[in-house]
Write the structure tokens for this entry.
Amino acid sequence: MKGLNLLCCCLASLLLLGTAEEVEDASEPTKRDRSHLENTLKLNEEKPADDVSGVLQRLRKIYHSSIKPLEQSYRYNELRQHEITDGEITSKPMVLFLGPWSVGKSSMINYLLGLDDTPYQLYTGAEPTTSEFTVIMHGPKLKTIEGIVMAADSSRSFSPLEKFGQNFLEKLIGIEVPHKLLERVTFVDTPGIIENRKQQERGYPFNDVCQWFIDRADLIFVVFDPTKLDVGLELEMLFRQLKGRESQIRIILNKADSLATQELMRVYGALFWSLAPLINVTEPPRVYVSSFWPHEYHPDTHKELFLKEEISLLEDLNQVIENRMENKIAFIRQHAIRVRIHALLVDRYLQTYKDKMTFFSDGELVFRDIVEDPDKFFIFKSILAKTNVSKFDLPNREAYKDFFGINPITSFKLLSQQCSYMGGCFLEKIEKAITRELPDLLGSIGLGKKPNVLSCDVTGCGETPKNRYRKP
């Protein structure tokens, strides 16, 4: 009898031990294979670093000699709140993460960088966890940088953020991580949008800060999950800010493996139906469906589909990294086009004001009449008729009411007077940069040529701009 009892005790102990091991195994989910991520982003390739210093030096020279003089003369920064710094010209591509709270933005960054279960990982949770704008960039060792320090460092591209006030700088944080992917790109994690909270409660202009990052992002990931598909006022405002950047937007339905097939189809349709009216394109938006975290997909889900969707998104990210210089030159050229249009409009406002002024006129009333109804004086139509300007590039008429409210029209000079004996004319220099210098620089990258940096004088490269007021 004692032997039988002893045998039963041994069997019970073995069963309990086996059950404990199963519970322990179940508590530690298996990690997903990362080889596809490393292969798609080419993290294991030892490629020689591209020599882009010559291109960047030439690009800075074109900007400072041909674009910035007109930009400063007509105070373009006060219209668009967009001033380009040397740090922005030399910065790496920026990937911006936007979306509602707790949809997996921080988890996605952890997954892409392999930071899970390391001291570097971003904090995640089911509740709203990210209350700061977090910039994840490369550094020799793990280091946290306060927003005040980032804004004060002119070598970085974040110094213009100082204009949003000290309350915002306290909500800005930089994290340097020694990771190979961050040598080629910078990630920006943003606070999640909470529809039942007014953004004014954040203590800083949240929408304006988002717009600053949107204007400078090379790729924008807008992340959703199956439980947060509602589009409220704040999210609608966000998509309004994304207008014109549709080519950079990637919509992601995260945590897709948490749903069965039928439920996933319904959620996908609901998300598509909610977002389609907000995106200003004729074709339907592409939605990437997957689960961006390190654990294996849930069983009985479409693992092959999720993996293909993930690889497609990673290929888009790698393409942005590969086209860094092309995108940078195109960005500077687009900025130059906007500066040129702004200068032409201010010049037209000023010329109309001078034409309407008489000896007995009240200058303030004359100009108020012009600003209130510019179409009456054909301000915008004359720009389209006389110059190579697209009507889709014209700024909002209402913006110039505010612009001239703080910048008196008499403080500007006509474009015909913006010429010097040695430097040439501002307008001709920026037009030359748009039509010749920047396209030539872009072409030199495609052909693998190194641009000649030493052949440019202070006025730019190539022929000296013609000065109509200089005697032959």
In short: The longest strand covers residues 133-138. The first helix runs from residue 2 to 27. Residues 19-26, 452-472 have pLDDT under 50 and may be disordered. The beta strands are 94-98, 133-138, 143-146, 172-177, 186-189, 219-224, 249-253, 287-289, 419-420, 424-425.
